[in-house]
Design goal:
167 residues, alpha+beta, Helicase, Ruva Protein, domain 3, Tetrahydropterin Synthase, Chain A, 3-stranded antiparallel beta sheet, two-stranded antiparallel ribbon, 7 helices, 46% helix
Length: 167
């Protein structure tokens, strides 16, 4: 089956993958955009896993203060290059994670940080394991990994802090 330029363009806009990757994925899936997007996502996540040990010395610190000024959060989202840190997708994710911290009040960054004796569910107290507030079908960690796959760099939440009046 011949793949059209419009199909490639649509898949590229949806996934952020390269033109040739989109073309190959569409050809391999017989022109099915859903299967092609899934194949690209899996390929991107595999590449992101290989980059997980790279330093994330760039990034940004994002703040969120809830309406009324009674709850606020700071999040440090790291990446490998300042180019990625300046993208709208990276900034939006940093803002969404800061909003997540303010709303859901996680106590730990990841499951491995949970103190011995804390028997609360990791999905409740671990930021990266919590369901993402904008899409409950994914965890915060999965959303971060999806951005890493799309950007082609290691992206990770380095730390966060939450402040609330009276706490």
């Amino acid at each position: 089956m011949a793949v059209t330029a419009q199909q490639i363009r649509d898949l590229r806009n949806q996934t952020g993958a390269g033109v040739m990757d989109c073309k190959q994925a569409l050809e391999a899936s017989g022109g099915d955009p859903e299967k092609a997007a899934e194949a690209l996502r899996e390929k991107g996540l595999a590449q992101a896993a290989r980059r997980a040990d790279r330093d994330t010395n760039q990034g940004l610190i994002e703040s969120y203060v809830h309406t009324g000024g009674r709850v606020g959060a700071l999040v440090e989202l790291g990446c490998e290059s300042d180019f990625v840190a300046r993208t709208p997708e990276f900034r939006a994710l940093a803002h969404d994670i800061a909003m997540q911290v303010a709303a859901m009040s996680p106590a730990y960054l990841d499951e491995g940080d949970i103190e011995e004796g804390d028997d609360r569910s990791p999905a409740q107290v671990s930021l990266l394991r919590q369901p993402f507030i904008k899409d409950n079908s994914s965890s915060v960690g999965e959303v971060v990994q999806e951005l890493a796959a799309k950007m082609g760099e290691n992206v990770r939440v380095l730390r966060f802090s939450r402040l609330a009046l009276g706490e």
